[in-house]
Specification:
heterodimer; A: 9 helices; 19 strands; B: 330 residues; alpha/beta
Amino acid sequence: MATRVHMEALSPTMEEGQVVRWLKGEGDAVAQGDILAEIETDKATMELVARGDGALRKILVGEGGTAPVGDVIAVIAPEGEDIAALLAGLGDGGGGEAGATAGPVAETAASSGTAVPVATPAQTGSPASSGTPAPIPGTTPAQPAAPTGRVKASPLAKRLAGELGLEIAAVQGTGPGGRVVKRDVEMAAAAAAAAPAVAAPAPAVAPVVPPGEEFADVPLSQMRKTVARRLTESLGPVPHFFLTVDVDMTRALAARARVNQILVAQGAKASVNDLVIKATAAALTHHPECNAWWQGSSIRVFNRVHMGVAVAVPDGLITPVVRDAHAKGLAQIGAEVREMAGRAREKKLQPHEYTGSTFSISNLGMFGIEEFTAVINPPEAGIIAVGAVEERAVVVKGEVVVQPRMRITMSCDHRVIDGAQGARFLATLKSFLEEPAAILI
Amino acid sequence: MAEMTYRDALNAAMCQEMDRDDSVFLMGEEVAEYDGAYKVSRGMLARYGDRRVVDSPISELGFAGLCIGAATTGLRPICEFMTFNFSFLALDQVINNAAKMFYMSNGHISVPIVFRGPTGAALQLSAQHSQACETYYVHAPGVKLVTPATPADAKGLLAAAIRDDDPVAVMEGELLYNVRGEVPDEEYVIPLGVADLKRSGGDVSIITHGKMVHVALQAATMLAREDIEADVLDLRSLRPLDMDAILETVARTNRVVYLEEGWPFAGVGAQIVALIQEEAFDDLDAPVMRVTQADVPMPYAKNLEQLAKPGARNVVEACKKVLYLPAGSS
């Protein structure tokens, strides 16, 4: 069973490749998976992998030669199999088979976990921006060298290809009569990870939130889709990761004390948690990417902060929502939280009062908990877990001092928030708590 | 647990049921005075007397009809055929009476009969006495069919067959009578219609029934030496059929080889293959292959008989085909 060796799209923007070096010579034995040649692409020198077994019977493009993506550059076949007819057929069609030639050019980066910068797809006006998987540039699929466009594939292979988002017609089949079978689809999926996706022409990904709109739906970039799928597969429905900061609460406590002196006249009072809510809401306005919902095929980035505040109730937990927490003062936040918590314990909260939060806070400090990790309320992207304020010894400028410290652990949905983004938000939150005057800015 | 032969397991099942229920009796050629043509009914005449262990003339059509009649009056006959090859003479009684009586009487007349005996080839019994007879019994609706391959399965399935109110054919094998195996001490019954995964693998499913189970296990051992691990599913029961067990193994391995000692045309395997491709189409990575006897009457010559029978090597070859592996390598 002969296998055509194609010049494969080894990078998303590659249009042709140059053979730097053949690692196998004519007549050498070849097994599926062996590295056949080193190919220079528009980006780097990449390895071309054998997709069939047998011997390297014929090299059609020698070292130093170039070929457009899709062309047949060699033939693998078992020793003794007559390939004369196959070689003759390659002569007239330029080697391209209708549409389906570019080897395992997957339409999605099926299992790529590495950050492949696909964010700026071929801006050069090449065929890649035509809105369909690029027809192989340079070949007009006028005379397919192979008979018919019909793909022979086992039912299982078809199903797997569908699940993995692979075009079955683009998978080289190693079964009888060129039948595509399970192992071929699996190999193509693995190769697609090495050969990143032909970029679908996704619009630029920077979330531009028009002023005045409540939210903007940001379509997912290829990388975002890939990260989402891989992490979901490894960690369950919401892929959590956790970030912790330890905050010097000296100034925060002092600020709260001064605020309460003013509020006494109104008969109101603010708690430490109310201050944390305010600081968090303020920090989120500087980091809207953390104030978001995972929507499956897009991320909803909010302009306003509706803070879910976790409240323990007799048989569980509920999160009443302080709407527009970023725009409310400490007194109002405190009053709302206490009033809703009371009604929550009596099971008198209305649905609109405990849904619609864009971010959540859980505080177990009153139970003496130093630090804990909270579970995200889907579809929100993040939640912070606040511990108790405790006097702790810390080192400041080489000296041991005692400060009131509080640990905050943020749980992030990795489909929406990456490590650096979460870290930046937490750093801002910490800075607001360590210097509350910054919230006024 | 006790180790005993397949033959003794059958004997134990019959004695157990005859002790339990006075209406059970055994009839067949040589079953009484001779202790059974293959000694399966050894000691039973002495134990139960000649009203319950009855030698019949050499007249399959006659004594099958007699037993079927007895069954309709409330007795529970075990009708032994010296081999199922000979039962061809009785097929009119089996198919037209035993199988259809319940239906034709609108449920008024049950036929709680067991037909038992060896089926398939032994050694050099030649064309007329080496036939796998499952297909003839399993084709007409109305007869149940079990094919135990081990002593434990034999005892449990025969007991279940005797207790069943419908006609059940229990097909054994001369080459199985001496097979030894562990059998539970306590009374037990294996329900009809439940297959048994005799070996778990994951790379390929070998589905089979009857004495071919041992050939399948041999093939699995040969495949394991090449790092191919096979499931071996012993159907145990052809009617009713355990479709769930079949679908479960197909879903796991995506490739099936059916092994039977009968001929290929419209054999048991043909039915199983049809069902698999209807119900598990999307789980299949390869067509379902069958390994069967060659489509010839069984030769008498020793060497030709070996070639005509399906062997472990044939199974290994078929497994490699469905794995898309070159024959002769892994």
